[in-house]
Automatic annotation (TrEMBL):
Organism: Edaphosphingomonas laterariae
A cellular-component GO term for this protein: cytosol
Protein name (Swiss-Prot/TrEMBL): 2-amino-3-carboxymuconate-6-semialdehyde decarboxylase
Single GO term (MF): aminocarboxymuconate-semialdehyde decarboxylase activity
Pathway, per record: Secondary metabolite metabolism; quinolate metabolism
SUPFAM superfamilies xrefs: Metallo-dependent hydrolases
Length: 342
């Protein structure tokens, strides 16, 4: 069986303290347990998403990993938990709460279950402090949203945070959230189907066209979820604009497509044709297995598309399934509990 590392999965604790009562403000997330391993993630009084005990039960996660042939799974919080719009003191407390909950789930099998922390990204000093604390607690990196209110990833403070991530060796997973133009996409999950890919492309281009990658150290390990959104398909359009419009290249000294060696994307594109294009654009060292487990929009059998794609050589399949992720996460033999393939 090919060594497999899933870098994009989510968790929710089974329960957590009543944040509305704790802080005296409405519309905090909470879990309504329904029995039989079922629950409803709530946002205030509104139903947000039905979930199963895969989210919080470490033993259940390991069973699913065994069934899917996954050796290592990396968990990160559901973005609804970020609390970027709350006062920093509250967001810091919430981050500590959910970061500790993630480590409790990983304690079921710390060799195979890994975690990315969350931070109060609205305050860079607090975000750096929580990252340092969480890395000491056992997290191997951090998941951040692709923006904080109107601040994209090229914001000076967020660039400072990303530099700190490089300095302390934290892998960074960028996940889209709080999607644009939601009032125009009220039905059919269009915010997830249209808004999420656009948000992810926006976050990548914010780093490229602003020249941020020129200022960030090459040691930064950063990955964009959901295959980088619409980035790969539209990169030709971006290159064309850079060549022909000075307002596009004013802060970006090199052709945008030359920056694809500075970041990773996951494989959650659900189409062999899309995966082939993604590999062609990003290179075969820059695509990592990501499933979005255990949510319905995720890959239902983790890694199945890569395993079943007859066009992939065994060497490329091994890279996509686990070797690229081991590089992105800086995993070693001790971290994975097994000798990594050469």
């Amino acid at each position: 069986m090919t060594f497999a590392v899933d870098i994009h999965s989510h968790f929710l604790p089974e329960q957590w303290p009543d944040l509305e009562a704790r802080f005296g403000t409405p519309d905090w997330p909470w879990m309504k347990q329904l029995g039989g391993g079922r629950a409803m993630l709530m946002l205030g009084e509104r139903e947000f998403r039905p979930v199963l005990n895969d989210c919080w039960d470490g033993a259940r996660r390991i069973e699913a990993m065994d069934a899917h042939g996954v050796d290592v799974q990396v968990m990160s919080a559901t973005p609804l938990l970020f609390a970027y719009g709350r006062p920093v003191e509250q967001a810091s407390e919430v981050a500590r709460l959910f970061n500790s909950a993630a480590r409790e789930i990983c304690a079921h099998n710390p060799t195979r279950l890994k975690s990315l922390c969350q931070v109060p990204l609205q305050d860079i000093d607090a975000a750096c402090a929580e990252l340092d604390r969480a890395m000491g607690e056992g997290h191997i990196g951090v998941q951040i949203g692709n923006h904080v209110a109107d601040r994209n990833l090229d914001d000076a403070g967020i660039i400072t945070f990303l530099h700190h991530c490089a300095d302390v060796g934290a892998a960074v997973l960028v996940h889209p959230w709080d999607m644009m133009a939601q009032h125009r996409m009220p039905k059919y999950m269009l915010s997830w189907l249209v808004g999420m890919p656009a948000e992810t492309q926006l976050s990548i281009l914010s780093l490229i066209l602003s020249g941020a990658f020129e200022r960030l150290p090459e040691s930064l390990r950063i990955c964009f979820a959901h295959g980088g959104g619409s980035f790969a398909f539209l990169l030709g359009r971006v290159d064309n604009a850079w060549r022909n419009r000075d307002i596009v290249r004013v802060d970006c000294p090199k052709l945008p497509s030359t920056y694809t060696d500075r970041f990773f994307v996951d494989s959650a594109v659900f189409s062999e044709d899309a995966l082939a294009m993604l590999i062609n654009v990003m290179g075969d060292d820059r695509v990592v297995l990501g499933s979005d487990y255990p949510f319905p929009l995720g890959e239902q059998v983790v890694g199945q598309m890569i395993r079943d794609d007859a066009s992939l050589s065994p060497q490329l399949r091994a890279k996509l399934m686990g070797l690229n992720a081991a590089h992105f996460l800086n995993l070693d033999d001790e971290a994975t509990g097994r000798r990594l393939p050469a």
